[in-house]
Amino acid sequence: MSLLKDLRSVLNVTVLVAGLGYFVDLFDITLFGVLRVASLRDLGLTDPGEILRSGLLIYNAQMAGLMIGGLAWGVLADRRGRLSVLFGSIFLYSLANIANAFVTDVPQYALCRFLGGLGLAGELGAAVTLVAESLPRDKRGLGTTLVAFLGMMGILAAAVIGQWLPWKACYILGGVMGLSLLALRFQVAESALFQKHSPAARANPWLLLRRGRFGRYLRCILIGMPIYFTTGVLFIFAPELTAGLNVRGEVSAGNALLFGSAGLTLGDLLAGLVSQRLRSRKKAVAIFLLTGFFLTAVYALWPGMTSAMVYGLSFLIGVCVGYWAVLVTMAAEQFGTNVRGTVATTVPNFVRGTGVIAASLFAFLKESMTAATAALSVAGLCFGLALWALWRMDETFHRDLDFEEN
User: Using CA of residue 192, residue 193, residue 196, residue 201, what is the dihedral sign?
Assistant: First the structure.
């Protein structure tokens, strides 16, 4: 009852709008994984190898947009405010998704996903920074957990709706939902911490390149690598991955994403609650990482599974890598107010960008070994780097956020 009371106490307009914005963000970013095969076939592609190669090209274009946009939106968040970025990013990715419904070939598709990635890059960091700076230190973890929980529901919605509506209608729906959120802009106030600090001290991303800070920044990115390895390889390429495991029954990417997304949604809530219970970000993430790697090894080494078992494992692995909210909160807590927006915006997008590395490395290794062995090799690298980076991080659960980087 005390926990439910705490959750209700942080559910204000700012948290709700940030969470709904993240819902649309993840709904849109997940659509391509669900619609990949159907949309590319509708554009005239028939060969499975061609569909895989074109899918990787479009996925990488979206990830490139996320990485480039992350830096631009981050600097803007520290210069002009968290609120302007929150709604500016929603506006851009909404228009890009509507345009996506009218593409006629793969290059146009890749361009729309790149522009969508540029827009999607700004929403989460601005939302988490705004919420974290608006709540007391003992409650901010719960606030960002609620934002992430609402956002993860967007993945689940995309996994369901993407299998029922035509692919063009799905992209239009995502764009319309985003534009509808803009009506709530005037109900949300700018961060008091951002307004408190002098404009002269704002938006200096070069501070992140100084000794000590850059290592901290890089470790934040490495801790998130397993999340996008899981979604970018285990879920999106589940049909190709399980083809050599003698799985009984057909495995579809849409269903793998559906069950994995349900796990991510639950995991994000559980990770935030475990962090609150342990009063530690690091211990919560460590528990989830170790369990996640164990289950990934089971996935890759257990031949003769049924499709239902694959979906069950996808759900459990999703739970274990559902520490997204704790990661972004921890990244925001690591740095001062004058670069916090840059960090909270760029870190999740560079984490998303590691999906490009994971998917490309998987595709490369798949040429010389089985898909399952390739996936497990990439998993070992991603989880290993994440655990090393976590071990080197400072605990930030009780940190006061009212400070600047000099």
Answer: negative
**pTM listed for this prediction:** 0.78
Share of the chain above pLDDT 70, in %: 92
Query: Which tokens go with 256?
Result: 């793998």
* Interatomic CA distance for residues 314 and 317, integer angstroms: 5
Mean pLDDT value across the chain: 84
Q: Which residues contact 371 (CB under 8 A, 6 or more apart)?
A: 237, 240, 241, 242, 243, 244, 362
Query: What phi-psi label fits residue 246: left (phi over 0), alpha (psi between -120 and 50 degrees) or beta?
Result: left
CA distance 378 to 380: 5
Per the CB < 8 A criterion, the answer to whether 376 and 300 are in contact is yes
What domains can be seen in the chain, in order of their start residue? 13-184+209-392 (1.20.1250.20)
Residue 347, class by beta-carbon neighbours within 10 Å (0-12 exposed, 13-18 middle, 19+ buried)? buried
Q: What percent of the chain clears pLDDT 90, i.e. is strictly above it?
A: 29
Q: pLDDT of 193-216, one tens digit each?
A: 666 655 545 556 666 777 778 889
Q: How long a stretch of residues is the chain?
A: 406
